């Protein structure tokens, strides 16, 4: 009996020294935005590597986040002026991810304590950084809530509680659907292992989202040589206009 | 088939765009209107960002008016001299319009401005067209003689007179310059050619003969919209070539079909249908401005600083 308790205690100590580590796999580590891109589903799976026996209590939980590149955005609010709805107040948010998904293996607040959430910036409100809201707008908080609401509606922000499947406290997997209107960039993928709300291990990697082929070429041209891009658009337009009238004339004569 | 638009950064159905281009093309062929004033609001409805819709539509109009002006050049119904004067005003106007557009974009009011312009102009044009064609139908039933247009008004008293041989006019260059300027501003802000304003202005204000009006208007629209396209492409990066090409293909095919349908149907009754459709688009846009939106907040890219 004594030996048994001792071994459990030893195991507990050993666990705290030798952390559990994440070995991760992704179904794809790059997403190519092609001309017929229609969203993408990424399978994230992995295993927990450990030198010791599996600790039973508290159970191992997994939190996975995928976040797109941060962008500064301006949130505007409409008000009724002279009978029509116009943008009146605006708040500049320093950085809001263009895409953000959180997947957990249980209810969010059971899996991650609010202290750890604050430290690692996991939940949606934490991921949006807004420093120095203008003083003329009183309820600046509602503006960042609006970002979450609007982007959640279009599938850009996702809170996926209870979607990570954890098997035998060792294997885990989830899938995250990325919508069609993605911005390109490095999508940081983070995995947190938690026990009792505390992060015991974390791992991060990135998914490369890029426009490729024609999309890449057109986008680069429009930014790097806007004049050439504009002239090319005009050339296409004029050729199409001339072609249509010429084709129609031939069609009429025959 | 979904297609990802590289500049608008949204994914839309390619057949929807081809269809929209086609339907607006049929209408423009049938009624002899540019179609930009219908296409741009339709692009708003399917979720293309307004800035991209306006810039890309200007590009598409270049194609449809080029196609049209070729036919008019053959028939010698283009007043190149008048077109050039209108064009000078138009280019200045387009420049001013893009500056105004960018200023309001930074202020977050560009959507409002574009939509307000649409409500006002679609309302006026739709209303005028509706009553004009009602009158035309009534007249054709009574079979009365057409009223004579008066030829002399205050415009003929202005200085800097010039002779326009093709139009058979000897008038001051100031009114055509101002007409060109106003249409240029509208072209830049609304993403339209402005033919629907230019044509009545040329007939009623400048007193040009109707047979040269459409060709001349198309001639100067090509240059003004081409200039607008370039300005939007170099300052806002909002011209989406993929979107333009899809709309073009549908548009030019639709226009040819529309021309054939148009010759077989009764003009006044079709015009009433078009007027009703214009008023419906106008009504939808007006309701958006007047009713409380379900989402009061909107997200825009940080601009202006």
UniProtKB/TrEMBL annotation, chain B:
UniProt subcellular location: Cell membrane; Membrane
GO CC terms of this entry: plasma membrane
First-listed, main subcellular location of the protein, grouped into a coarse class: membrane
A Pfam family of this chain: TauE
Domain of life: Bacteria
Keywords: Cell membrane, Membrane, Transmembrane, Transmembrane helix
Record-linked InterPro entries: TM_pro_TauE-like, TSUP/Inactive_protease-like
Membrane topology: Multi-pass membrane protein
Residue ranges of the TM segments: 12-39, 85-106, 112-131, 177-205, 212-231, 237-258, 270-287
Stated family: Belongs to the 4-toluene sulfonate uptake permease (TSUP) (TC 2.A.102) family.
PANTHER family xref list: MEMBRANE TRANSPORTER PROTEIN MJ0441-RELATED, MEMBRANE TRANSPORTER PROTEIN YTNM-RELATED
Protein name per UniProt: Probable membrane transporter protein
């Amino acid at each position: 009996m004594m030996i048994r308790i001792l071994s459990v205690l030893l195991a507990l100590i050993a666990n705290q020294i030798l952390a559990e580590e994440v070995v991760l796999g992704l179904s794809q580590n790059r997403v190519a935005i092609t001309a017929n891109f229609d969203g993408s589903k990424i399978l994230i799976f992995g295993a927990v590597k450990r030198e010791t026996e599996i600790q039973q209590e508290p159970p191992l939980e997994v939190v996975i986040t995928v976040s797109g590149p941060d962008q500064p955005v301006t949130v505007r609010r409409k008000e009724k002026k002279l009978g029509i709805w116009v943008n009146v107040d605006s708040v500049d948010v320093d950085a809001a991810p263009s895409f953000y998904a959180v997947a957990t293996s249980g209810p969010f607040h059971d899996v991650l304590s609010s202290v750890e959430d604050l430290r690692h910036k996991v939940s949606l409100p934490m991921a949006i950084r807004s420093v120095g809201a203008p003083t003329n707008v009183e309820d600046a908080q509602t503006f960042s809530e609006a970002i979450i609401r609007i982007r959640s509606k279009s599938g850009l922000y996702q809170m996926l509680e209870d979607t990570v499947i954890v098997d035998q406290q060792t294997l885990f997997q989830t899938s995250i659907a990325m919508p069609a209107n993605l911005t390109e960039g490095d999508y940081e993928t983070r995995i947190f292992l938690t026990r009792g709300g505390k992060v015991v291990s974390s791992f991060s990697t990135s998914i490369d989202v890029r426009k490729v082929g024609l999309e890449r070429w057109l986008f680069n041209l429009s930014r790097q040589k806007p004049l050439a891009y504009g002239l090319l658009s005009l050339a296409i337009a004029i050729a199409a206009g001339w072609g249509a009238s010429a084709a129609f004339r031939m069609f009429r004569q025959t | 088939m979904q297609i990802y638009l590289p500049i608008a950064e949204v994914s839309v159905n390619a057949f929807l765009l081809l269809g929209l281009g086609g339907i607006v093309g049929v209408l423009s062929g049938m009624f002899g209107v540019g179609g930009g004033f219908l296409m741009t609001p339709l692009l708003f409805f399917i979720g293309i960002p307004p800035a991209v819709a306006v810039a890309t539509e200007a590009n598409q109009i270049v194609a449809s008016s080029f196609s049209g002006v070729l036919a008019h050049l053959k028939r010698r119904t283009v007043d190149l001299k008048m077109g050039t004067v209108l064009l000078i005003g138009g280019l200045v106007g387009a420049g001013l319009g893009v500056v105004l557009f960018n200023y309001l974009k930074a202020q977050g009011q560009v959507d409002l401005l574009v939509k307000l312009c649409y409500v006002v102009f679609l309302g006026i044009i739709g209303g005028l067209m509706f009553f004009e064609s009602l009158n035309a139908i009534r007249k054709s039933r009574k079979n009365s003689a057409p009223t004579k247009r008066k030829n002399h008004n205050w415009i003929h008293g202005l200085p800097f007179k010039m002779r326009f041989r093709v139009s058979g006019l000897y008038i001051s260059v100031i009114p055509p310059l101002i007409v060109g300027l106003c249409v240029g501003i509208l072209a830049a802000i609304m993403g339209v050619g402005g033919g629907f304003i230019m044509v009545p202005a040329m007939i009623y204000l400048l007193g040009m003969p109707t047979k040269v009006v459409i060709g001349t208007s198309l001639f100067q629209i090509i240059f003004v919209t081409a200039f607008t396209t370039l300005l939007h492409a170099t300052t806002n990066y909002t011209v989406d070539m993929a979107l333009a090409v899809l709309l073009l293909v549908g548009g030019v095919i639709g226009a040819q079909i529309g021309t054939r349908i148009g010759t077989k149907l009764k003009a006044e009754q079709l015009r009433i249908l078009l007027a009703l459709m214009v008023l419906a688009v106008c009504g939808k846009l007006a309701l958006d401005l007047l009713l409380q939106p379900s989402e009061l907040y909107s997200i825009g890219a940080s601009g202006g600083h």
